[in-house]
Amino acid sequence: MLSTMQDVPLLISRILTHGQVVHGTSQVITWTGESEPHRRSYAEIGARAAQLAHALREDLGVEGDERVATLMWNNSEHVEAYFAIPSMGAVLHTLNLRLPPEQLAWVVNHAADRVIIANGSLLPLLAPLLPHLKPVEHVVVSGPGDRSLLAGADVQVHEYEDLIAGKPTAYDWPELDERTAAAMCYTSGTTGDPKGVVYSHRSIYLHSMQINMAQSMALTDADITLVVVPQFHVNAWGLPHGTFMTGVTMLMPDRFLQPAPLAEMIETQRPTHAAAVPTIWQGLLAELTARPRDVSSLTQVTIGGSACPPALMQAFDKLGMRVCHAWGMTETSPLGTIARPPAHVEADTDEEFAYRLTQGRFPASVEARLTGPGGERLPWDGESAGELEVRGPWIAGAYYSGPDSEPLRPDDKFSEDGWLKTGDVGTISPDGFLTLTDRAKDVIKSGGEWISSVELENALMSHPDIAEAAVVAVPDEKWGERPLATVVLKEGASTDFAALRSFLADEGHIAKWQLPERWTIIESVPKTSVGKFDKKVLRRQYAEGSLDVTQI
Ligand code: AMP
Q1: Is 187 a catalytic residue?
Q2: 107, 193, 348, 359: which could join 434 in a potential S-S bond, CB 3.0 to 4.6 Å?
Q3: pTM flag (> 0.85)
């Protein structure tokens, strides 16, 4: 029997129209570095998205599912592109501006982007790449920056504002199939070429509804969210779409991602929520410690992308900024889990803190299972550690492999029955909370036992003299692998490795056999293009002998 329900496709244009009409006075506020930020209402964004779609179709000839790339910071024009491109049926390709130039060129060529919308401030990055970007015919420039950098380039250059000026402020958005491509994002490609993940209208729509739920980010039109996570990093974790459903005002930092301007944005614009990876928050914490500000508006901070160090959570709690930890991947749109403790757990207890430190609980649409080294299913007992596999309506089932080829389903990424193998190792408690102990490739295999690099890092980062710490596996004749602890000291601090070892044992409750014997002080932990610890750089530096290692 068929249902008697209407079959209305879940389209991004519907999210746009809803936000534009029902939440027309909500705003996208973009930081400009000047005393007054730029403000644009959702109603204006909707009108300008329609104008952009007209311009792309009529002036630049964008047809069908052609890819239109953005090389942009978080700002209101980027939000316009977010909605205009998929709503007209084309595919938004957000470019990670922190990728090494050769990888950036690779993804533009692979996705066959014919148009790039770029912020003027990023032309120094784009201009030298253009000769290597074969498919690109048009560059649309928005915001301040030196246009002369594009002189002589073999592309047509347009001014964003001139291009959309005078175009109709409404667009008859097509009734697309909800399963068609809406946006794409390449993984940061730590090994081999980056892999393209293509989101559908349906997956983005359903994911947007999930992030808004009370047990997820729980934002309403009374909130202002500071979207620090870049729009090129898994769709800014779904915030631009989710906010248009609920009317949350977005505060966009543009290129001002340093701790001091972020602190100023918080003090003057009074956001209630913010989202970013731990590295950003470590920087902000140091800034607020050195120069205290009024951050009292900011009561909820979503942290994900890497494990949230307990010391960071405690420090933020003290400032009244309650951390909510979440886990996800480019392949999972990204929301995979979010750590809101169950209702029966008493507030402000150790039990509650322990729940908050987990990666969190799976929402109803994300199914999870753990697989042991021999391929066996492991129980959700909070103890058995295995590789996490997930499936669901916003989880990737394959990678993009070009317009005429079959999607890629490498064995190390997908199980035979189609689940995504996350490469993350951890446990799941009987009530569905995930605790990650490591990335499969970062875990330290010492004498047949596993040592969690994350556990050592978290314990080290709770030491008062340590700003950051990264632990990597290094080869060891006797044990196979042993941990190397690399630590960044706080300004003016000094240390003694033997004392740190004792601290790990006494305060960090790390078992004796897991304590690192190799130590080094570094100036900063190398970071990936999305601000995560880049452990492969540390492993390489160790192998080359360029680290000054002390053995104790
Ligand atoms: P990306 O696709 O670049 O966002 O990277 C996804 C990976 O980041 C995951 O597979 C995890 O290894 C890591 N990750 C994301 N969130 C967390 C978290 N809350 N705790 C630990 N690792 C995380």
Answers
A1: yes
A2: 359
A3: yes
